[in-house]
Design brief:
This protein is of the alpha+beta class. The chain contains four helices and 17 strands. It has two domains: 134 residues, Diaminopimelate Epimerase, Chain A, domain 1 (Roll), CATH 3.10.310; 120 residues, Diaminopimelate Epimerase, Chain A, domain 1 (Roll). It holds the Pfam family DAP_epimerase.
Length: 281
């Protein structure tokens, strides 16, 4: 099985190209395959599996599976890698391009220099702020400053969906945060019927924040594109930042803008790691 390994700010993915395959999408057990391929000792290693598929409604279709086999609606870092892959392979040469995802059809703009993709801007669409659509068990729109209790401790959170759910919590200092305990506890908290991604945010200035993320189905990762978008939206809703923000992540920086058209725009890289043949079948 041929594969390509890619990463966006250290958020790494195994890519399988099925865009030219005549096999039905349902013929492969992608959840099981993701668990095998993403295992860092017995497989290739990765935060997720991305499958490149043809689309009847866009230029291409992206399906992503977390390392635990679950299928999220979208992945911001993954879709930037996806755009670069299908462009470089000559599968799609349109710019901007349209990609079908579980969160809808997204428009991507490529930054190309001397024939090489240097970066990708993704129109992530409008943030979802209504509780029942995020979903979170709460009231109102937006969901700001609600209380959540974990192991006897209470935290205030803002809930945002960028096609997938996010719980954003502002902290003064990461050193006092029990990340490995609080992250998974909130991910699976009963307030979130479909579980949630969890972002802890430190405000550095009105135009810069630092983020630590516990991803739904993947755990701690070096970056999360949808999480960066949701965190900027939450920061603006809480009057903590301006509308154009640099998000510092363990794997590098993302540039996020919540435009006046109510769309969120994410700009960042997508890079290759290696390619090969998996012999573990």
């Amino acid at each position: 099985m041929e594969f390509t390994k890619m990463q966006g700010l250290g958020n790494d993915f195994v890519f399988l190209d099925r865009i030219s395959s005549s096999a039905e999408d349902s013929a492969e057990d992608y959840p099981q395959l993701a668990r095998k391929l993403c295992h860092r000792q017995f497989g290739i290693g990765g935060d997720g599996l991305i499958v490149v598929l043809p689309s009847k409604v866009a230029d291409a279709r992206m399906r992503i599976f977390n390392s635990d086999g679950s299928e999220p609606e979208m992945c911001g870092n993954g879709i930037r890698c996806f755009a670069r892959y299908i462009y470089d392979q000559g599968l799609i040469i349109s710019d901007p391009m349209l990609v079908e995802t579980g969160a809808g059809i997204l428009k991507l703009k490529l930054f190309i220099k001397e024939g090489q993709v240097q970066g990708v801007q993704v129109d992530m669409g409008e943030p979802i702020l209504r509780a029942d659509l995020i979903p979170v068990l709460g009231e109102g729109e937006p969901v700001i400053g609600q209380s959540i209790e974990v192991s006897g401790e209470k935290y205030l959170f803002t809930a945002v969906s960028m096609g997938n759910p996010h719980c954003i919590i502002f902290v003064e200092d990461f050193s006092s945060l029990d990340f490995e305990r609080v992250g998974p506890a909130i991910e699976k908290h009963s307030l979130f019927p479909r579980k949630t991604n969890v972002e802890f945010i430190q405000i550095n200035s009105p135009r810069e924040i630092t983020m630590k993320v516990w991803e739904r189905g993947a755990g701690p990762t070096l970056a999360c594109g949808t999480g960066a978008c949701a965190s900027v939206v939450a920061s603006i809703l809480n009057n903590r930042t301006e509308r154009i923000v640099t998000v510092q992540l363990p794997g590098g920086d993302l540039f996020i803008e919540w435009g006046l058209d109510n769309h969120v725009y994410m700009t960042g890289p997508g890079n290759y790691v290696f390619k090969g043949n998996w012999l573990g079948l």
